[in-house]
Amino acid sequence: CFITESTFGLPIYRWRAQREVLAEINAWWQANADAGRASLLLGYSFGKAQRLLAGLDAGIGPIVAHGAVETLNAAYRAAGVVLPLTQRIDDVPRDDLKRALAIAPPAVQGSAWARRLGDPSDAFASGWMQLRGARRRRGVDRGFVLSDHADWPGLQRAIRATGAARVIVTHGYEAVMVRWLTEKGLNAQSFQTAYGDDAAEAAHEVQT
Question: DSSP secondary-structure letter at 91?
């Protein structure tokens, strides 16, 4: 028996290579910096933010980290993970903020903290950005598709690799995944967990 999450358990969710997405993020930041406009990149504080930081071109301008992100950056660095230099927003001169990229949790969007960047171009890095409707609801200038969850092909590979005849699907598009697995001849069923979705979890990000 194999228990799998199914957050992105729809065929539409297929991730591009990370290097391509990070190159797009750096190009977006560079264009904003050339126009004298700060960039605000939204991503979950634990894991996603550090993954983004590791792929940034620090030569474009200063990198600002929200307090919730910076606390975790310190833990990553203490564990030996190499990350580019990040600064608190108060430590960056106002003129330099015009070329800066600020990385912060999604709950910061529209907050007083974000307004200290002036009129930034904002973007959200998440698997949810695969859908145009999700980008509109988030209300950001750009959406970058980058997720720590498995995509549809990744979920299929994981399930096949287990060799399990019984699969329990939870958290996400459970009905679609169960139907697909059943059609493949597996004994599949869904299970509702107590965990919420990423959007709900984002609302609980600590703001400092």
Answer: G
Q: How far apart are CA 128 and CA 152, in angstroms?
A: 13
Residue 72 and residue 50 in contact, taking contact as beta carbons nearer than 8 Å = yes
β-pair type (166-172, 63-65):
unpaired
| Of residues 195, 103, 135, the one with CA closest to residue 204 | 195
Q: Are 93 and 85 in contact (CB under 8 A)?
A: no
Using left for φ > 0, alpha for ψ between -120 and 50, and beta otherwise, residue 171 falls in: left
DSSP 8-state code for residue 141: S
pTM flag (> 0.90): no
**pLDDT per residue as tens digits for the range 148-187:** 999 999 999 999 999 999 999 999 899 999 999 999 999 9
**CA–CA gap between residue 59 and residue 62 (Å, rounded):** 8
Rounded-to-integer distance, Cα 195 and Cα 37, Å: 38
Across 77-106, average pLDDT: 96
* 7, two tokens: 């957050």
Residue 127 and residue 138: Cα distance in Å, rounded?
13
The rounded distance, in Å, linking the Cα atoms of 156 and 105 is 30
Query: What's the rounded Cα separation, in Å, for the pair 110 and 171?
Result: 29
